[in-house]
Structure formats: structure tokens, C-alpha cells
Amino acid sequence: MSRHVYLDYNATAPLRAQARAAMEQAMEVGANASSVHMPGRTARGVIETAREAVGTLVGTRPANVVFTSGGTEANNLALEQAQALGCARVLVGATEHPAIGEAASRAGLKVVVLGCDANGIVNMSELAQQLAHPEPAFVAIMHANNETGAIQPIEEIAKAVRAAQGILLCDCVQSLGKLPIDLATFGPHIITISAHKIGGPQGVGALAMAHDVPIAPVNKGGGQERGRRGGTENLIGIAGFGGAAQAAHAQLQENHPADLRIIRDAFETRLQQAAPDLVVFSQAVERLPNTSCFAAPGLDAEKLLMTLDLAGFAVSAGSACSSGKVSRSHVLGAMGIEETLALGAIRVSTGWQTDAEDVTKLADCWLAAYRRAQATITAA
Ligand code: PLP
Q1: Which residues are designated catalytic?
Q2: Where are the beta strands (DSSP E) in the chain?
Q3: Of 230, 191, 241, 181, which Cα lies nearest the Cα of 211?
Q4: Which of 69, 73, 173, 331 to mutate to test the pocket of ligand 1 (most atoms within 8 A of CB)?
Q5: pLDDT tens, position by position, 285-320
Q6: Cα(276) to centroid of ligand 1, in Å?
Q7: From CA 283, how far away is CA 323, in angstroms rounded?
Q8: Is residue 358 domain-shared with residue 215, that is, in the same domain?
């Protein structure tokens, strides 16, 4: 087992005990949820219990939850509905995850990318201008950004989209479990979510709707998920998603995100007091309480990641989803962050196993690297 201090929850959160327990139970079932016999009905029960837990976490009826193989598939499935829902145009935010950005063009529709301000918040006048077009639009704007944590004004966006007879898809993969979501009042028609960001297993997610929006399957098959997503359900994964959703719901009720905000804010204050030229991205707007993305001039994220890794810290440079290679993230690019600064960006994302002292140690480790870089610059 790695002894690393894990501060990369936005990439994948550690498996929760409740998710593990639910999966272990589901492993004992050994039947297909479509079978009519007793073991089959037991498998069906496991899936429907999980659907209820996920529905509760996002404030919708279980029937409005469609399980998929993850957030990426859920976003692709949602975008594929645009035309059938009467939208020939797709409007996407410039800071969307590639699971929206890349998938939008795949749907074969006219795609318009909406710009954002220096904090990554979507340009509302550009949105209004696009919504004034006579053809209704399918709009995809994420709830919270995976890199910076910036939270979009979804309620306001939803009002504008609904007034223009459009459809709003909101990628809630990062906000799930970190912010309360109640589809009854939130605004989007469709949201997408993923189990592994809330302590469930990787490879399972869902599309959830405020009301019953007709969803035609991309994966055609045996009519599972009420004909909205064919293929034998991932029984064990779905069970784990349900377990994680229950635990995440309980933690939201206990206001656990407020504790994370205190840790995050103390971390950023410690950094900014010792490194006055440090920039915390999207710091001027509401952010996910667990996320901090920052950089200082002259630092290289790739080297920093290695230094921090050797010191026992697991963090990310920009988006872990597209990592492996470190290049300027499209999110920081859209926000107009200079390439030289953006290439030093580190993302720290905390969660329920995070210890405040470990985060302080990470700040000190980063500051030591910063001071070494400053000394090299001064000596040169
Ligand atoms: N949307 C956002 C905002 C994400 O951060 C991610 C993953 O990082 C995804 C979608 C993709 O989800 P999944 O990994 O379940 O396919």
C-alpha cells in the first residue's frame, strides 16, 4: 500500500467503506437483474436500491436515473439527445471537461463555444446572444470545474435556457457530494454524475433528469434501463455507487464540505503569505470547498509533481483526466492565464480522509520548492 498523502480527490476519490460493503454483498448475488427467478429479482433489488440512493442524492425520482459506465458515457448519451429534443445547435462552455467538449462535436451538430471570464465563469451576455437565435439550443455548462473548482451560476443559466425553450445539460461530476444538488429546484433538465468522484468504484456513473426527458439509447441492446441504455447492468459497480451515494448524502447533511473549506483556505493563506506572487485560480468566485489550483511564475508543474511525489504527496497538475503529459490546460487557457504561469499549475483536492496537518506539510513542501526556484532565478 502506498503511504502517500492522497490529495487528488477530483481525479478519483478513495473507495468508501459503504461502497466496498455494498459491492461485496452484490458479488454474492451472481444473477442477472433481467432474470425473473428469485436470484434475478435479488439482483434487480440491488440495482433499484442503488438507484434510489443516487436519486435521493440529487433530488429526483429513481426512475429519472439512468446508469451508465461513467460520467463520460453519461455526457455522450445526453448530447446524443440534442436533435431529438428539437435542438440543432449545441452551446458549450469553454472550460468544460473533454467528455463534453469532444463529445459535442461527435453529435454532428453545430457547436458554439461560449467564452468565460478570468475566473472561468461563463460569459452570460454571449449566452443570451446565442439564446436569442430562433433555433432552440442544447446548452452544456458544468456545475463546478474539475481543475479550478469554479462554480457556475447554474440557476441563472437554467432560467435563461428555459425561457428560450432550450435544454440545459449540467455536468455535475465534480460537484456531486461536494455541493447539495436538488433537481426539483436546481434548473437543468439533465445532469451527469460519476461514482468514482464520490468514493464509489470507477467505471459507473449516471445521467439524471429533473423530469422524465425521453432518452434514446446510444448502446442499443436488451432494453435495460427502461430502454435508455442497453446492456446487462454493472451490478457490482452500481451497488458500490449506491453505497457511496448514501455515505456522501450523510456527509452533506453533516456539512462536511465546510470543514474542507477551512482546510483549503488555511492552506492558501499559508502559501500566499510566504509566496506573494502566487496566483490561486478562480479565487475571486465561489469554488468547490475541496479544490485549490495555484501557480507561481518560474515554476514547472512537471518537476513540482515529481518533487511532491518523492516527498509523499499525490496531487495533480491541471486535469488528471488528460494527464500523463503536462501541457497548458484548456481551462486555464480559456481563462486567459499566461502559458508560463499555467505550466506551473498544481491542483490539490481534498476529501473525507484528509488531515489538516498533512495539507500544511504539503504547503511547506511546495514553498521549499518555490524558494529553491527563487534562489536559482536570483543567482542567474
Ligand atoms: N466531467 C468532469 C467534470 C470530470 O471531472 C470527469 C472526470 O474527471 C468526467 C466528466 C468524466 O467522468 P468519468 O471519469 O466517470 O468518465
Answers
A1: 321
A2: 5-6, 65-68, 89-93, 110-114, 137-140, 167-171, 190-194, 205-209, 279-280, 291-295, 313-314, 346-349
A3: 191
A4: 173
A5: 999 999 999 999 999 999 999 999 999 999 999 744
A6: 33
A7: 23
A8: no
Name the residue of 77, 146, 154, 323 whose CB sits within 8 Å of the most ligand 1 atoms, as the mutation to test its pocket. 146
- Which residues line ligand 1 at a C-beta cut-off of 6 Å? 70-72, 97, 99, 142, 146, 171, 173-174, 194, 205, 321
Please tell me the residue having the least CA distance from ligand 1 atom 13.
71
**Domain ends where: 252, 280, 306?**
252
The residue assigned the cell 459503504 is 18
My answer on whether 349 and 218 are in the same domain is: no
Q: What is the pLDDT of residues 133-189, one digit of tens each?
A: 999 999 999 999 999 999 999 999 999 999 999 999 999 999 999 999 999 999 999
**Grid cell digits, residue 93:** 462552455
Gap between the Cα atoms of 222 and 229, Å rounded: 9
Kindly state the cell numbers that stand for 44.
Answer: 434487480
Ligand 1: nearest atom to the Cα of 194: 15
Q: Which ligand 1 atom sits nearest the alpha carbon of residue 70?
A: 15
Q: Domain of residue 100: give its range.
A: 17-252
β-partners of residue 92 are 113, 140
- State the pTM of this model: 0.96
